[in-house]
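Let us practice reading a record.
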Amino acid sequence: MLREEVLRDLARRAATDPGFLKQMRRDLEGTLAGYGLTREELGLVDDLRRRTASMSDEQLARTLASGLRERTGGPPARPSVPSWRGSGPARPARPGD
């Protein structure tokens, strides 16, 4: 079963956090390891990554934001960034990554 809220949160973060988006595009499985995605959810995210590979990060962020706006009626809210201390599902990128 797909957890739409988890997928929406990932899309929000990718649309509002350029570092997270860049990290996802570079190492999807490593970036999402702490989110506990099901195989089906990871497959959907990976499929989206492959279908949007020719887009710039900016174009993809706008596309994700637009899709979220259509589904929720408003712009994406900035999700809270997980802490490196383990309080969130994933560790933020190290400076320079």
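A brief commentary: The longest helix spans residues 57-72.
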